[in-house]
Amino acid sequence: MITGISTACFDPNTETEDSFKLIKEAGAETCEAALRTFFEYRPEFAKKCDIAGLDVRFVSAFPSNFEAQLFSRSRRVRGDGFYWLDQILRSVQLFGAKTYIFRGAPSDEDINFITGRLNEIANFCLRFGVNLCVENSVTGLCRRPEQFARLKAGCPQLSGALSLKSAALSGYPWQMYAVNMAGALSVIKVSEPEACNLKHILPALKDYAFDGCVLIEDTPAERLKASVEILKSSV
Q1: What is the per-residue pLDDT across 36-56, written as a single tens digit (0 to 9) for each?
Q2: How does pLDDT run across 97-111, given as a tens digit for each residue?
Q3: Cα(9)–Cα(93) distance, rounded to whole angstroms?
Q4: For residues 80 and 169, what is the distance between their CA atoms, to the nearest angstrom?
């Protein structure tokens, strides 16, 4: 396993482009660029970011900005969503990442419709050499553990991102999400490593065919370096 940090760790007073320097200083091996605004989705923004010496493996967007539009039954609304997805994927390429972490927020419960749209999104990502990875979220596509398995059955190319924080908020044990994502897990996201039982959790993840990246997604900036050291000693 390798360790990393998401730029989502930093509060809004820290600009995303400044987060990369702080991540390098904290000693992380890799990172996620969690883009917050439409301004940051454009490739012009990615070109200005100094990521020299840093392995940016994942990129994500603020989910309520446009991801739900990709599931609209209106072609015009979907077109707006795909415009911004196109912008982000161009940025993903510039960052050198290979995975777009997606939450989505469809209002439609028709699984065939959802997986049809998901295949469209995943294939669009592949045109840019980017893999689509669905993260569990209390407001997204994967709100309950069994939903990932249903999405994967309809869109086999999907991989999964397991957020331990979102699992706790959902009320379901993280193990239930891990079972449904087994064999397709790309990344694990942890919050407050010093408060998590990582010595138990991380070895247990091998039972779910996981040996990928562990990202810190939420911890106070002043404790970030210590959190990275705790995480590295646990993997």
Answers
A1: 999 999 999 999 999 999 999
A2: 999 999 987 656 789
A3: 23
A4: 31
